[in-house]
Design brief:
The structure holds two protein chains of two kinds. Chain A is α+β, with helices and mostly antiparallel strands. Helix content of chain A is 22%, strand content 36%. Chain A folds into two domains: 1-18 and 177-200; 22-175, Jelly Rolls. In chain A, strands 1, 2, 3, 4, 5, 6, 7, 8 and 9 form a nine-stranded antiparallel β-sheet that branches. In chain A, helix 1 (2-19) packs antiparallel against helix 4. Helices cover 12% and strands 46% of the residues of chain B. Chain B has helices spanning 3-17, 31-34, 152-155, 326-345, and strands at residues 24-27, 69-72, 80-98, 105-109, 112-117, 126-144, 157-166, 170-175, 188-190, 197-201, 210-215, 218-223, 228-235, 243-253, 261-264, 268-280, 285-295, 300-307, 312-323. Chain B has two domains: 24-166, Jelly Rolls (Sandwich); 170-326, Jelly Rolls. Chain B is globular and about 60 Å long. In chain B, strands 8, 9, 11, 12, 14, 16, 17 and 19 form an eight-stranded antiparallel β-sheet that branches. Chain B has four helices and 19 strands. Classes of the chains: A alpha+beta, B mainly beta. Chains A and B meet through helix 2, strand 2, strand 5 and strand 8 of A and strand 10, strand 13 and strand 18 of B.
């Protein structure tokens, strides 16, 4: 009997944990990868709009990229193919608030420094300027529905053509759904109750 | 565009009378309101003096008092009228009648031209709200530029219902979504620090948000079957100040998908209040009122507001003020007290 109860508890807790996912994944530049998320202020799809090396993406060999496509956080306003581009920021609004995000970004020849915010300030990445390397950087902080990325460097010499701060994809962790919290609480309560009864 | 604007004008007045606001609001035709702004050269109170419809001002929801004055009338040859504010103004909006006459006029503040309003003389009578900004000054002068019309001697020319003006550090922007532009500038635009803009977007891959001419008694609304987000870009006074206050009001139908978020370009949001109020239980229109405090004041902020599937938004009003040093606040408060005392004495 004890064994059966323990199994039930594990199942309940596992179900609660499973409800906390799945992780959001925004693959910028690909319609299916952007579907379901609200995007504001993004540059056009690259390298297809402005061919170049793009850290290997131009030849389809950028490491860690699924679609070999990206968008820039900052581009000239009105650039064809951009998504309401008007400033040096870009945002993704998720269905639920997120608590952390991993951003795959190009540390390129521009000063691709940026700030990541999710309702509150989450942190800063500072580019060393030079080379072209795709890097994944993780930020976290107080929950927010919208992840805002702002390019903080000066526009570089090739800005008019290429824009600045290429982003390949963003992976984000949502806060647990209310149902998951409830389920998890029930599970934790059950464990506590069983332990008090010394049956677990 | 009826009920929505009742609320908006209430917002403007509430802001003008609120503690956080220093907006100037002059209700032309109401002596108590005008007196604070030293009116000169205005015609008599209408329609009380000459009768007539005056564009339906008595029944129009946007007029608080149902009264107005003209800036040019038969009592003098001067086609101008002025208001003088206690301190410099940076931007102003005026509600004026585009009537049967050529009701065009020029706007001047101090000695600087702020622009013109042009009447196309369409033969109809329509009240319009026009926004102007320019070099700050205290004295606002409106000058009629059209030729006298046939009934000038009876009615005068260029009727004005009210004027709202901002002081340095303040902005006021009201989006009524009169058309389907996206992004879109505010219909009442009192932001001298840069172009305020609203962007309406929905989830990629889903049907985009839709502008509808009329929905449940309101005109000009945005809705979206997949939910939608409105992003507001509000430029600020780029002068360091201890903090900034932001007041937001949104008229909406349906459900919010979470609270609005304010993203300052610098500083931290330290204070936040929000209330949701049912405005009309029959139609279901509600309003969200929120205020935020950012320390210190940022150069600009982005405001994201989220709406669930099938929700609709009728209008968005945003008032901001960068609050200067305490000494200046004390002086402003003192000035306000003096005005109040003068009004009481009168």
């Amino acid at each position: 009997m004890k064994k059966l109860v323990a199994i039930c508890v594990v199942v309940v807790l596992a179900a609660g944990a499973a409800q906390a996912g799945p992780t959001y994944f925004v693959d910028l530049g690909t319609p299916a990868g952007e579907a379901g998320y609200t995007l504001f202020d993004w540059g056009p799809v690259q390298p297809s709009t402005s061919p170049g090396t793009w850290g290997g993406m131009g030849s389809g060999t950028a490491p860690g990229s699924f679609d070999q496509l990206c968008r820039t956080v900052w581009a000239t306003p009105g650039t064809p193919g951009s998504i309401m581009e008007f400033s040096s920021s870009a945002s993704v609004t998720f269905p639920r608030p997120i608590t952390s995000a991993t951003i795959r970004h190009l540390v390129g020849q521009a000063n691709d420094s940026y700030v990541s915010a999710g309702g509150n300030y989450w942190g800063t990445f500072t580019d060393t300027v030079g080379g072209e390397t795709w890097t994944s950087t993780t930020f976290s902080g107080l929950p927010g529905k919208t992840l805002l990325i702002t390019a903080t460097g000066q526009a570089w010499s090739g800005f008019a053509t290429y824009g600045q701060l290429g982003i390949d994809w963003i992976s984000a962790t949502p806060i647990p759904a209310p149902g998951a919290v409830l389920l998890g609480s029930i599970g934790a309560g059950l464990v506590g109750w069983l332990r008090r009864r010394r049956s677990l | 565009m009826v009920k929505k604007l009742i609320t908006i004008i209430a917002v403007v007045v509430a802001l003008a009378q609120g503690q956080a606001s220093a907006l100037y609001f002059g209700d032309i035709g109401t002596p108590l309101s005008e007196a604070a702004f030293s009116p000169v050269g205005w015609g008599p109170i209408q329609p009380d003096t000459s009768g007539g419809g005056w564009g339906g001002i008595a029944a129009g929801p946007l007029s608080l008092d149902g009264k107005c004055r003209t800036i040019w009338d038969a009592s003098d040859d001067d086609p101008s009228a002025s208001l003088t504010f206690p301190t410099s103004i940076t931007a102003m909006a005026v509600r004026h009648l585009k009537g049967l006459a050529d009701d065009s006029f020029d706007v001047e503040v101090g000695v600087a031209s702020w622009g013109s309003a042009v009447d196309d003389v369409s033969g109809s009578e329509v009240w319009a709200i026009s926004s102007f900004m320019g070099t700050p000054g205290k004295k606002l002068t409106l000058t009629a530029t059209g030729d006298e019309w046939s009934l000038f001697d009876t009615y005068g020319q260029v009727a004005v219902d009210w004027v709202v003006a901002t002081q340095p550090g303040e902005t006021l922007q009201v989006w009524t979504f009169d058309d389907d532009d996206n992004p879109t500038v505010p219909e009442i635009n009192l932001n001298p620090y840069g172009p305020a803009m609203a962007f309406i977007g929905g989830p990629s891959g889903a049907a985009p948000p839709e502008w509808i001419a009329t929905l449940v008694g309101r005109e000009g609304v945005w809705t979206g079957d997949a939910g939608f987000t409105i992003l507001l870009n509000i430029p600020n006074q780029m002068v360091p100040n201890p903090y900034k206050e932001i007041c937001v009001e949104i008229g909406f139908l349906g459900d919010l998908d979470g609270s609005p978020d304010v993203y300052p370009s610098g500083g931290v949001v330290v204070g936040k209040t929000e209330t949701v109020q049912m405005v009309d239980p029959v139609t279901g229109w509600q309003k969200l009122t929120a205020s935020y405090r950012i320390e210190p004041n940022p150069d600009k902020e982005l405001i994201f507001s989220y709406f669930s599937n099938g929700a609709a938004v009728d209008y968005v009003a945003v008032y901001t003020v960068c609050v200067p040093e305490p000494l200046t606040i004390s002086l402003l408060g003192f000035g306000g007290l003096m005005l109040w005392r003068r009004r009481r004495a009168a």
